[in-house]
Fold this sequence. Notes:
Strands 1-2 form a two-stranded antiparallel ribbon. It has 582 residues and is mostly helical. It is globular. It contains 21 helices and 8 strands. The relative contact order is 0.11.
Amino acid sequence: MTVRPTLPIREVLRGRRLSWVDLVVGAGIIALLYAVVRLGQSMAVNFTPGRTPVIISTDVADVPYYAARSLLRMFIALALSTVFTLVYGTAAARLRRAEKVLVPILDILQSIPILVFLPIALTFFITLFPNNLLGLELAAIFVIFTSQAWNMTFSFYHSLISQPTELDEAARMYRLTKWQRFWKLDVPSSMIGLVWNMMMSMGGGWFFLTASEAVTVFIKGHGLSESLPGMGSYMAAAVTHGSYTEVTIAIVVMVLLVVGTNFLVFRPLVAWSDKFRMESSESAEKPKSIILNLLRRSSIRRLAGRVSRPVGRALDRITRPFGLAEYPLRTDVRKRHIGDIIFWSVIVGATTTFAVIGLVYLNAHLGFTRFPSLIGFGLATFGRVVVLLVISTIIWVPVGVKIGMSPRLARYAQPIVQVLASFPAILLFPFATLIFINLGIPLDYGAIVLMMLGAQWYILFNVIAGASSIPNDLREMMVSMRLTRRLRWRKVILPAIFPAYVTGGITAAGGAWNASIVAELVSWHHHTLNAFGLGNYIATASAQGKFALLIAGGIVMSAFVVVVNRLFWRRLYRMAESRFTL
């Protein structure tokens, strides 16, 4: 009997032969995994207590290694932010009890300055991994995570609460389980906004990269100062040396990193997410990506499908007992009432305990007489935030609509926009400091410009996402009805982008408060400028290692952000949910 030989090397997935596309994609995946493993090994190195901190070299030959280390931290933090977004956003939007607690907590987390997170994270992770570089690495990743997660979560949460009723009815009619609804409805309908906010999150991570990689913490009376290899620490060393050449090298490398990340990761994601746009007529122009085309032509897509289908079927069976979408398992009304009482008792008790402990600590180390002056600092920074939001809205809403409604323009504008958004504006601060000094511009006004460099992009990216998700039917309707420009904006464009703008506005405001920490106190070599504001106060307290002052400043900043969100932005959220849902 003749046995027909098989060619497993040349055949994959249903007899398809290996092509040059499969070889290129396979080689790329292998190279990526190899780089991640090698870089990961260097992130967990033991060191001797009391040793001399690592000195960051400004040699050009070390820059590629620094860039790779920073890029790995950024993507690890982005992956964690995505998981957090999907879990937290879903819980806040779908759980009746949890929403009343989770959304205010998200407001507070967004408003807490990153410099307040830093010493807490450092203390925790260094204690967890003593005498090991992994503790510092995890602390740096956590700080980057805090600059990425909140705007993604706000975007996903708002997409869920403003979901069209037709989709909700379809989920019930097809009797989808909660798990099926999440992956077949919730995530796809939120994908366009989520992808654009992921790009914005990368920009937020780059902005605070210096603070996360050049760390200082005080544990048990001993100061620990350590610089992790990366572009953030390289930037800090370049600014300390006052070298224009080194700063220029950092700028060039950052631009290359952003452009490369856009080409290899985010442009394919934007082109892929376009298929989730809700419309009945297909757009003539669609986003394109060379990388996405290669992946679609390769065997990776079929292989991933064959691996994921059994896992998906198993998860469907496991999650079906939890009930169908919007039809939870029936519970006794009396038990539900008792559950509400227990739930709110635990929340109120935990909040009260935490508040009492915090007040006792602040009274012992600071005293409450300091808070009136802190409120004055906060009002000054609040004024800058308001001016920033007004100017950013006037400038970037028309630009975002133009980009979002034109796939051809988006193809060329997206890399430029992402470079501007992801570029660490803190690199421009030294040059801005010299300009302010030469022109005699006080930082009280110049800080508004510096804060805009880091916060305005939240509005632009969300407006682009909102405009790009406008169904092609509405665009064709505007043309066929020959609406004037004014009517197009009033009746179609502004109502359609309003939910996305609200998300961009609330995250831009939070980003502006955080940006004030590095914008109200700037220096270049021997020159230092100060602005009257809460950001300057927090930055000074962090530099002096005064934890009580740092906590007090963080509490006041959080109070400002939460109050404004409750009184202003939350009402706009409800308006977007009730009046401007497509």
